[in-house]
Design goal:
mainly alpha
């Protein structure tokens, strides 16, 4: 398979669609292509997020008390980061096929991936400030919960409009996404502590 490239126009259009969805506008879906090629292009979102994620890793490494090399530390988190981008779509693929909604898979993943750019640009700067101990204690907890709630509501809305299904099913998908993130994060942390 030839390398799939993406244009600046594709990126801007997709991010604008994600922005429209963030405003609660269902027509944001119209700004995403739902072709096989567009599916793979949507994974360029992880590259857009990567610089901010790397800053978080640098700050996190500087603040950790564990005796671990920077290369091993970075490798653990980068591998987990990539696994997260692959694992959730695979889980959703199987769930949607089992529930006869496989035809909505590409549309959902394309919207979800591009929306992840906005979500991470909201949440990662806060996470960096927490790791740098600029935000600490009760205020940091409250702000963190507010931002997490915003991300979850946004994810729920995207899932609802892309899959066009029941609230219970949509909520289940969002919960799976949340628990997968917690699971991968705990595995990363466990590997750091136990090395």
């Amino acid at each position: 398979m030839a390398l799939i490239t993406i244009s600046l126009k594709d990126i801007i259009q997709s991010l604008y669609g994600a922005f429209r969805l963030a405003k609660g506008d269902k027509t944001g879906l119209n700004y995403f292509n739902t072709t096989y090629e567009a599916f793979w292009k949507s994974f360029y979102a992880l590259i857009l997020i990567a610089p901010v994620f790397c800053i978080l890793l640098i700050v996190k490494y500087d603040s950790t008390g564990e005796n671990i090399s920077s290369i091993r530390f970075g490798s653990i988190y980068i591998i987990t980061y990539i696994i997260g981008w692959v694992a959730f779509p695979l889980i959703v693929f199987h769930i949607l096929n089992l529930t006869s909604m496989g035809d909505k898979f590409i549309r959902y993943v394309v919207a979800y991936n591009w929306a992840s750019v906005l979500q991470n640009f909201i949440y990662l700067p806060f996470a960096i400030l927490v790791e740098a101990r600029i935000f600490t204690g009760f205020p940091a907890t409250i702000i963190g919960l507010i931002l997490l709630s915003i991300v979850l509501v946004y994810t729920w809305f995207i899932t609802k409009v892309a899959l066009e299904t029941t609230n219970i099913f949509v909520t289940s998908i969002v919960i799976i996404d949340l628990f997968l993130s917690i699971f991968l994060s705990s595995i990363s942390q466990g590997m750091i502590i136990n090395i």
